[in-house]
Design a protein that fits this description.
Blueprint (H helix, E strand, L loop, with lengths): L6 H4 L13 H18 L2 E6 L5 E5 L4 E7 H10 L4 H13 L2 E2 L4 H20 L4 E4 L10 H10 L3 E3 L4 H14 L4 E2 L1 E5 L4 E6 L16 E5 L8 E5 L6 E9 L2 E11 L11 E6 L15 E4 L6 H10 L5
Parallel strand pairs: 1-3, 1-5, 4-10, 5-6
Antiparallel strand pairs: 2-3, 7-15, 8-9, 9-14, 10-11, 12-13, 12-15, 13-14
Helix pairs in contact: 2-7, 2-8, 4-5, 5-6
Amino acid sequence: HHHLPPAELTDVPGLHVIHSIENWEEIERSLRAVHAKKMLAQSRVLRIGKYDEIKNSTYGALGTEVISIPAEEYNRLFDSIKLDEAMEKAAMQFKAAAIEVMDVTDHYFVEAFRAHKAVCTLLDRYDAEAITIDCLMLQHRKPCVSFSINNGNLTATCGCENDITATMTMLLNRFLFGRPGFEHNSEYDEVRNHYFATHCTCATQLNGPHAPAQEYKVRPFFHHLPKTPALDVQWTPNTPVILSKMYSESDIRYYTGNVIESPACPPTGGCATRVLVDFQVDDITTVYMESHPILSVGEPDDVRCYDIFAKLFEARDG
């Protein structure tokens, strides 16, 4: 075009026009968005919580099936799982791979792998791609280790605290980028203008299942007894990251930044992985997406996938 691109193409909802000099990267990003939408429409998410009966629903206009299941089904399944040699061996291998273990006994490592078996069994039982559990009060049944393993392997997307929005955002990231996300709580160092992300189920394979894993420590779950294991994953300084949350198919909010470090505990708190990030904004408290946004490894240009996805699949009349 000799002048501006035609508005009848560029301003049309549901249509993404690539007006660029031979740009294969943008074509790939666009196809990733189409792929992610198709995968979300074919996916099933389990919600484990305080429900009286099993209920089926659909998540917004994305078409993802959601099955809500009483927590008692998970509890009964966990209690029925008997310890065997393979489970105990996997638990001790997981412990041995940690660079440090703080105040977690072998018994609770094994209980974590009973929880892993329960989570995987439910995913198989309902043929689901994702699961989110009302997990804070599960005592020895907490699935923190299982969620880390599944998210890192991309075998299933696992979200904390029965948060369906966070889980759907991680599922979107899985299909867009092939990398796990870190569901977390937000905090801020207002003096240094840094963002502080903390939570208990961070994956070790932050760059995807075929990349080297991050080093990790194991420390007790912070908020409730007993002292079940939670992962303290060490993020690599200067790694480019994306903070995101999908509120709807056409409302995906994000920031891009770089990891500063994984601060030690003490002096910092937070259960149990901690990541300090520089988002290069004037006021760090503006980087706020309510509860449980998702932090993931990613280059700044990756966020164009969100823009393309939102434009292609925004809800429209008719």
